[in-house]
């Protein structure tokens, strides 16, 4: 092959240099951080928010909030559901270390202070209902009570009948288990029922963890839906999300509202020597340990207008987010208007 002339070699070298420059520019552009999706916390690296949450939030977190969080921030969601008290104990004993903890009631977060967290935010509320099996032999009576054709006080007389299959959660570890008992105590007073009504409905000591009525919160609804129970305790949000048949209860006994906090406080149960009292039921959130970007992003998303709207659609009452404690990460504080 003949050698190329000097001018031809110069032109070829120039073309090669221009091509390399263009390729380098393209490579730099494709690797630019500006093309990465923001995590929502000011960074560009995506991570996983590991969230421990009350089992009553399972549907919302797995079907709505988790996917919405991923779409909005690029971070992924990983969840662990359980009774709030059980989760608290697991965190305290270092069995697991989530980034975020969502509990029903602050009394499951305060024992973790100040070692695991120094703050929490209250942002949503719920209330008690009695869910029932529409194929139960008592179905016609449930429906009559739910529709108002029969007085609501008849529900409590019905639940104390021999052979009635009732499901509830363990009051020693689960707020819902305690709430159900508070509700019964308040109903006994509100409807002027006989003094032994609560005991007859529970079929034994209120704080018993071995009653045949006790089920894990994560399986209680499924047990009711399978037809193994006539009725079960539930938060109204669970009943709405899972399409359960249920009976609404009056605000003075359903633990829904802050204006009745004094009345709710009259109900109590002794758990391992500690007296616990009824109170309005709220959802609280915090980070655990050293806050991670993905964990902060999840809390920020939960407290954002989009996150709170998901709670509202799920039947929760949405509260003005209120901080208790100190040390809230700035990104979360900014969502609260601080």
Q: Overview of this structure, please?
A:
With 338 residues, this protein is of the alpha/beta class. The protein has two domains: 48-124 and 281-335, Periplasmic binding protein-like II (D-Maltodextrin-Binding Protein, domain 2, 3-Layer(aba) Sandwich), CATH 3.40.190; 128-277, Periplasmic binding protein-like II (D-Maltodextrin-Binding Protein, domain 2, 3-Layer(aba) Sandwich), CATH 3.40.190. Helices cover 41% and strands 19% of the residues. It has 14 helices and twelve strands. The protein has helices at 6-30, 58-73, 84-92, 139-147, 153-159, 175-190, 197-202, 217-225, 236-241, 251-254, 261-265, 293-302, 305-313, 330-335; strands at 48-54, 76-82, 100-104, 119-125, 128-132, 166-167, 231-235, 245-247, 268-271, 274-277, 282-287, 317-325. The strands form three sheets. It has a six-stranded mixed sheet with strand order 2-1-3-11-4-12. Strands 6-7-5-8 form a four-stranded mixed sheet, with helices on both faces. Strand 1, helix 2 (58-73) and strand 2 form a beta-alpha-beta unit. Helix 2 (58-73) packs across helix 12. It is globular and about 60 Å long. Mean pLDDT is 89; it is low at 1-43.
Number of strands: 12
Low-pLDDT windows of residues? 1-43
Termini, distance in Å? 76 Å
Order of helices and strands: HEHEHEEEHHEHHHEHEHHEEEHHEH
Query: What's the CATH first level of the largest domain?
Result: Alpha Beta
Helix content: 40-55%
The CATH H-level homologous superfamily of the largest domain = Periplasmic binding protein-like II
Rounded mean pLDDT is 89
So, CATH architecture of the largest domain?
3-Layer(aba) Sandwich
Main sheet: strands, sense, barrel: 6 strands, mixed
Query: What class do helices, strands and sheet pairing give?
Result: alpha/beta
């Amino acid at each position: 092959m003949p050698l190329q002339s000097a001018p031809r070699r110069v032109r070829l070298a120039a073309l090669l240099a221009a091509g390399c420059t263009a390729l380098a520019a393209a490579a730099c552009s494709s690797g630019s951080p500006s093309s990465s999706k923001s995590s929502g916390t000011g960074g560009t690296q995506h991570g996983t928010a590991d969230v421990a949450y009350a089992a009553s939030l399972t549907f919302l977190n797995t079907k709505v909030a988790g996917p919405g969080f991923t779409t909005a921030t690029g971070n992924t969601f990983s969840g662990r559901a359980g009774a709030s008290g059980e989760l608290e104990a697991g965190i305290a004993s270092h069995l697991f270390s989530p980034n975020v903890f969502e509990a029903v009631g602050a009394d499951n977060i305060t024992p973790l202070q100040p070692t695991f967290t120094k703050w929490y935010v209250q942002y949503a509320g719920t209330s008690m209902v009695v869910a029932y099996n529409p194929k139960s032999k008592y179905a016609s009576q449930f429906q009559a009570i739910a529709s108002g054709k029969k007085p609501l006080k008849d529900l409590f007389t019905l639940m104390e009948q021999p052979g009635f299959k009732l499901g509830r959660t363990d009051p020693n570890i689960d707020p819902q288990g305690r709430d159900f008992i508070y509700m019964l105590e308040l109903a006994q007073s509100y409807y002027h029922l006989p003094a032994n009504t609560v005991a007859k409905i529970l079929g034994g000591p209120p704080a018993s963890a071995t009653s045949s009525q006790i089920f894990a919160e994560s399986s209680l609804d499924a047990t009711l839906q399978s037809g193994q129970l006539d009725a079960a305790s539930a938060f109204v949000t669970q009943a709405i999300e899972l399409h359960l048949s249920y009976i609404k209860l009056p605000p003075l006994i359903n633990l829904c509202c802050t204006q009745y906090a004094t009345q709710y406080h009259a109900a109590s149960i002794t758990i391992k020597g500690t007296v616990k009292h009824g109170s309005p039921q709220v959802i609280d959130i915090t980070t655990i340990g050293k806050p991670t970007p993905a964990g902060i992003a999840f809390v920020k998303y939960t407290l954002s207008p989009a996150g709170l709207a998901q709670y509202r659609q799920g039947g929760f009452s949405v509260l003005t987010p209120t901080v208790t404690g100190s040390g809230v990460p700035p990104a979360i504080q900014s969502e609260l208007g601080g």
